[in-house]
Amino acid sequence: MDSAAQSLNPSFFGIEDYFAAKSLISSRSFEIDEYHGFGMVPLADLFNHKTGAEDVHFTSVSSDDETDNDADEVNSETDVHVNTVHGEKLTKNFDSDKNESAAAITGDNTDSSHSSECSSVSGDGPMVLEVIMVKDVKAGAEVFNTYGLLGNAALLHRYGFTEPDNPYDILNMDLELVLQWGLSLFSSRYCRGRLSLWRRLDYSGCVSQNSEYFEISSDGEPQIELLVLLYIILLPEDLYRKLDLTTSTAGNTNGCIDMILTKKHNSTQDNSSEMTKDLLLTESVCSSLLELADMRESFYGSSSINDDIEALKRCCPVERKLYHALMLRISERRILEKLRNYVVSAAGRARSPKTANTASRKKRLKKK
Asked: Which residue stretches does the UniProt record annotate as biased composition, category Acidic residues (predicted)?
């Protein structure tokens, strides 16, 4: 600041100014392409978000002096959603008609100085962004973009709003909460050992802002890494030591957990994720998931989900913070309900093979 005192006004660089600029950049900038990186695009923030129902896409337009092969390669991908204003890369479009329309809009045909200013550093010609309508919109209706396939937690955290019935909602289950559950049953040394084995098997949760967590999908299905961790924590001591020894001596830990699963359950080797999940969802793992769901539910206090729904109905639309907070609470609590239903269904599947095996054994004994 001191070295540039003549060109910079210190009064414009206070903490409030910093927060204002940071807020604009974090909520309005997006990645134009790999070369140019992130940028602020005037007018792009006119479009609000709608999940899976956008009206427009943004795409970068380059000069058409690329090779025919490059053009064919890019045009073959234009049916895919050209990603969008917030947080996604843009695809170059080499259609000559679109270049002409973009040039007409930007005035590149008539102003050579403007054209040189817009040229990319590589000298390939002008680079502009084009807004493309992807479906018809009635006159006077709001035009929507999409910021990506984001759940309500991400939408609220990044942009300050939520969507009802968002199909991309998820619920986070913190690793810290799982360890808290483990410490309620076992010693600290026991839990550290099981967690260490889980990590040596090359498993980990999702990580954001130095916090590790597991995702529960919108239909209540838990992340498989969480199931593996719970399974290892609940392993009998002899199987735990066998898995620990196998992991320590094997050069490659891939498949170690599958080997234990198939041996323990006397099943044939099957690498499908569905088969693995079914074997991981033992009665004890299902019980632990229900306990974790109750622990996670306690974060919302003593009110029930029905209380939250009634509060949302009474909430005035101008109370934006309260409204969207209640929307997020309700969407997360609905996922917890679906998690419980998922666990009950999985527990039923886990018991049914045992019932079938018992019946077949009795049948064989009668024949004998």
From this structure: 63-76
63 close to 94: Cβ distance less than 8 angstroms: no
pLDDT digits (tens, 9 = 90+) for 17-40: 999 998 888 877 776 667 767 778
Backbone angles phi, psi at 264, to 5 degrees: -65, -40
The per-residue b/e assignment along 184-197, b for 16 or more CB within 10 angstroms, e otherwise, is eeeeeeebebbbeb
- Domain assignments of the chain as residue spans, ordered by start: 10-149, 153-367
Q: Strand 48-49 vs strand 144-145: parallel, antiparallel, or unpaired?
A: parallel
Q: Is the pTM of this model over 0.70?
A: no
Distance CA 88, CA 84 (A): 6
How is domain 153-367 classified at the CATH fold level?
set domain protein methyltransferase, domain 2 (3.90.1420)
The helix (H) or strand (E) run that includes residue 152 is: helix 152-159
**pLDDT tens-digit map of 238-252:** 889 988 888 877 665
3-state SS assignment for residue 6: coil
pLDDT of residue 216: 97
3-state secondary structure of 128: strand
Task: Pick the closest to residue 134 from 96, 87, 83 (CA basis).
Answer: 83
Q: What is the pLDDT of residue 147?
A: 78
- DSSP strands (E only) in the chain: 30-33, 37-39, 48-49, 56-61, 92-93, 128-133, 144-145, 171-174, 206-208, 211-216
The amino acid at residue 229 is L
Q: Residues 58, 93: contact at Cβ < 8 Å?
A: no
Q: Under DSSP, is residue 119 helix (H, G, I), strand (E, B) or coil?
A: strand
Q: Is the dihedral of CA 4, 8, 10, 14 positive or negative?
A: negative
CA 347 to chain CA centroid, Å, is 27
